[in-house]
Amino acid sequence: MITLGEFSLERTIRAVEKVRERLLRATAILEKANIPYAVAGGNAVAAWVSRVDEAAVRFTQDVDIVLRRSDFPAAIAAFEAAGFQHAQILGVEVFLDGPSAKSRDSVHVVFAKERVKPGDESETPDIDRFQIADTYRIVELESLVRMKLTAFRDKDRTHLRDMIGVGLIDSTWPARFAPALGTRLQELLDNPEG
Question: Which residues span the domain enclosing 111?
């Protein structure tokens, strides 16, 4: 049985700020160590969506970073020196934000040019092409859309709908992808409300 705390706008704001702070600390660690990376996942979607409509931004609970596998040992050393703890949770490499952190309080690592799951339609893109958002690198838009189409979980479909909703993705986009991914995107374009 769970224990409910009081309603608190401050607690809600703090939850969002914690993710933002973790994102900035993680990317600063990688920048300082000269380790190539790109932010992916919900934070990258939010950065792209905010360029069109701040009111359409959806917040996320964790930080997703794309790294090259060859840079992973250096990333482990850099994160651990900064107080993060490396772990593997359900097959995902993560950096927990301190010794008492939950898996949600972490930086999730996705490896460039590898499939996240064996049956995935597409590899994660390399990080040689990225955009600068504030002080950190984010995955370019087409690569981000490909990642979301490949994973295609409920939250990925929601992120894709957010990008469709603000006009970042339109009817010309399905042709950019392999047929299986293009079909997934066309289904969302045809029925954006699900």
Answer: 9-140
